[in-house]
């Protein structure tokens, strides 16, 4: 069976003002999150205001790009290529909505360790997604 990146086109992301550093880092193979200087909470999707305390004192920070699958769903209906969407809880704390790629979708499990990989959208934008790591212990 073809892998996600071989058979499924990735739509271009909707760009919001301020997203440029996030996608520039993704093009370099880095996943960024934001950290609030006021409450010290880490959050994703990066935004201008902290979703915990509403402070504007937020800074970009590198993520390790590793975490665990919190929950997932595999879509196999229709004529398109099957795919897996998941919530991944990063080791830094935030839980993000993403795709699980480059793996047999029948082996995806809650609690499985994953790492970030970057896939290219139709226009060439690097999109962070996740794939299981070799050691799948949570």
UniProtKB/TrEMBL annotation:
Signal peptide (from-to): none
One of the Pfam families matching this protein, by short name: zf-ChsH2
InterPro entries, per the entry: ChsH2_C, ChsH2_Znr, NA-bd_OB-fold, Thioester_dehydratase-like
Span of domain ChsH2 rubredoxin-like zinc ribbon: 23-58
Gene3D superfamilies: 6.10.30.10
Segments forming domain ChsH2 C-terminal OB-fold: 60-119
Domain of life: Bacteria
Protein name (database record): DNA-binding protein
Native species: Cupriavidus yeoncheonensis
């Amino acid at each position: 069976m073809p892998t996600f990146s071989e058979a499924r086109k990735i739509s271009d992301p909707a760009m919001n003002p301020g997203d440029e550093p996030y996608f520039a880092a993704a093009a370099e193979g880095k996943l960024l999150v934001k950290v609030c200087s006021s409450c010290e909470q880490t959050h994703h999707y990066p935004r201008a205001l902290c979703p915990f305390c509403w402070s504007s004192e937020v800074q970009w920070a590198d993520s390790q790009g590793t975490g665990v699958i919190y929950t997932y769903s595999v879509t196999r209906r229709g004529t398109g290529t099957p795919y897996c969407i998941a919530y991944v809880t990063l080791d830094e704390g935030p839980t993000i909505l993403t795709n699980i790629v480059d793996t047999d979708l029948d082996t995806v499990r809650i609690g499985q360790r994953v790492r970030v990989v970057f896939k290219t959208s139709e226009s060439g934008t690097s999109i962070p997604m996740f794939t299981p790591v070799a050691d799948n212990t949570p």
